[in-house]
Amino acid sequence: MLGRNVKQQPPFGAVFVGAAIFVSVTLFNGERIARSKLFVWRAFKCCGLSSIAILLAACGERAAFQISGMAQGTTYHITVVADKNAAEQAALKKQIEDRLSAIDSALSNYRDDSELSRFNRAAVGEWISLGTDLYHVLKSSQDISAACAGVFDVTIAPLVDLWGFGAKGHRADLPGADAIAAAKANVDYRFLELDKTAPRARKNHPLRIDVNGIAQGYTVDRLAELLSAQGYKNFLVEVGGELRLVGANAQSLPWHIGIEKPTDGLGDVQQAISGTNIGITTAGDYHDYFEKDGMRYSHTIDPTTGRPIAHRLASVTVIGASAEYADGWDTALEVMGPERGYAFAERQHMAAYFIIRTDKGFTVRYTAEFARYLH
């Protein structure tokens, strides 16, 4: 009997690395927080009350407002430290949702009319003009792929579908070795050619692209870009658990974030971190997987083997200058695993935090660059 476990609403109708911010709250060292793989640490120390309105008045915080909704099959939450009336907030929300819609139209592989789907249907050798969003994501993805020898690879779509994590949905049995080899033969980032002068792209081999390993980070960065262009200097953007922190929070302090303990349910906080002007994302194997004959099969697939990862790395959080950078690299490090991924991150001076399963629970490792963010 094969069963599928999905703990979150999937972005673009698919499964992204990252998790939605859940409504539930918990306590960590006496502070109230929202729970997710990455979630905002609401620092309510001064009052200890559950009403945000009362806290803002009693604690003397700067004025702030929140915008939230559904996008890409998941949720988004934005906190802006500014004093704006209802009409101004509504106007900003429309701009945000228009931008989200445009990104979805470009990057979704669950919409037949998206730019990505049209490219996936294109003939081998045919140059296809690309919009800014899709070209940027493909260029960033190719750069990461080249730097990690293809451990991260957006041409992985045939394998994602084969293992039942794509648009076609889950499957009733495990794929055989021949099917895996056939799908893997069409997976190689070097089959994709980009021309920045147009911009445009073409396939040099039959391939299909899935950008779910980086697209939410890209989306977060574009929303942050929109807010900055509007003159906002202090805000947090979250899409499906991937984050961008800019400026300071309502208490004029760095933003406080919690990393979720990687358990099947709504987990406790594993580690609190703080920072500003950074992107933070997490890749994990515990929110979307299936089980068969006592074996667990993660949605994260190693393009070099054609199979779901099978090591003990439960999650990896990466901090970088952008959420897009962090999102692509957390996927790559998750595929590499706890030993190779950690060594690679240290050599590249990445800020990365690894949560590793043991027979007794979990252990953690983090790079020297990550240490300064620990709270």
Q: Note the overall shape.
A: globular
The helix count comes to: 9
- State the end-to-end CA separation: 44 Å
Beta-strand portion reads 25-35%
- Uncertain runs: 1-36, 38-58
Structural class by secondary-structure content: alpha+beta
The percent range for helix content is: 25-40%
- The gyration radius over C-alpha positions equals 20 Å
Largest sheet: 8 strands, antiparallel
- Count of strand segments: 21
Q: What is the typical, i.e. mean, pLDDT? A: 84
SSE order in H/E notation? Answer: EEEEHEEHHEHHHEEHEEEEEEEEEEHHEE
Biggest β-sheet: strands ordered side by side in the sheet: 5-6-10-11-14-19-20-21
Please describe what this structure looks like.
28% of the residues lie in helices and 28% in strands. The chain has 9 helices and 21 strands. An 8-stranded antiparallel beta sheet has the order 5-6-10-11-14-19-20-21. Helix 2 runs antiparallel to helix 7 (215-229), helix 4 runs parallel beside helix 8 and helix 7 (215-229) packs antiparallel against helix 8 (323-336). The longest helix has 22 residues, at 86-107. The termini are far apart. The model is unreliable at 1-36 and 38-58 (pLDDT under 50).
